[in-house]
Amino acid sequence: MVGSALVTGALVLASLAGCSAPEATPSTPPPLPSPPTPDLARFYDQQLAWTDCDGFECASLEVPVDYADPSGPTLEIAVLRSPAAGDARGSLVVNPGGPGSSGVDYARATSAIVTDPVREAFDIVGFDPRGVGQSAPVDCAEDAEFDALIEIDGTPDEPSEVAALERASALLECTAPVEGLLDHMSTADAARDLDVLRTALGQERLDYLGVSYGTHLGATYAALFPERVGRFVLDGPLPADLDAEALTLGQARGFEDSLVRFVEYCAAEGDCPLGDDPDASRGLERLRAILDELDASPAPTSDPDRPLTEAAATYAILMSLYRVGDRPLLKDALASLASGDGTPLQRMLDERVGRESDGTYRDNSFDAFYAVSCRDRAAPADIKASVARLSAAAPFLGEYLAWGNLPCASTQATEGPAPSGPIPPVLVVATTHDPATPFAWAEPLVSQLGDAVLLVREGDGHTGYREGSACADETVDAFLLEGTLPEPGTVCD
Questions:
Q1: What is the DSSP pairing of strand 206-211 with strand 91-95?
Q2: Domain 38-138+177-240+416-484 belongs to what topology?
């Protein structure tokens, strides 16, 4: 996910043919100590009480708010299981990223997120991380305040516009339904919950598929509990050692790369509202001119109270770059915008951020995004200086994305864990033109994980598994089902 006013190492690539199988985690490991400390026993000894919920199975998992104080407040983590289509060999826990996205909803979409052979072999289990969805959801702003943050000028040109952006960002003041939860919303806290879930599922080791931010959650788990890592697939790498500015710069460059590739696609299709010149720089100039026009005068939409601003249009464009299948929609929406109608682009944005026609948001993913992100990564000490640096490094999107760190400026970040031991082999999947988790982040995450193997998908869009590459799907499945890792340097089209 990219905030609204927020938000490649060299590889030797080989073909999939001739893959060998490095030693993988044994499927029946010896018993492991559980729980980590005796005072956590009541959490680690839980049995999940599954109930039917619309064709799936649901349960709640109790965890402490603060793992250093197990006798203190607790919260309930919502869990959903999609039972295996065949004889289950165990559970595969999945996480859709965000941070702030619902793992319960993700597991409901099992047929889309994993292949049929994996569905046949595993119970697919999703959970709403603490503060998300049904798990003691945090609340950081009114719906109208999120509207304002999306719509307000994200590239302020004068002091009054900077002050307005600062006021809008300051409105994000989070509350939680459980005492102390806001101080324990880091990814490390969620990773500890994940280990409690592992034992409740009866797993000696955790088998896990995490995408986007979910790779950071998985890597954090591996750092905390390396001896409990089973078959881990981390798709769309997000390294742990990026501060907020480094993360923002990486995403600015990733989205700019994907934007150039969209402009090239648009020109090749013909009748492109950005022009049909194959030189993408010309199309980007036209797009910048359109956005500058919106900065001066927002475009009318079907809702007279919600004209399309420059910031909202930029956000809509970024969100449409996640999936290659959105390119025709973006092309048409930009054509409408060039004709003076901002409605299609605004509707695209509303659909992607979960804003309903009545002005409500369908979940608390925005709230949780800020609550977790601000705990995980320290914002730049001087936002304005950071804006200047990112504007120079990523001319089209750096300024817009750099201002997005403003809501986290007053939050104290929590230092993440260092690896506590050697981590078993993990499969990292990276896409060469991924906008949100750019390819440049792949090697740093692989290095962080020690013996990880990198699988490269050559192509566009966010993440690589179940994104149209049979090669990537078969390679991931071979690891999940058989423990067979690809040859290092493997690339899939």
A1: parallel
A2: Rossmann fold (3.40.50)
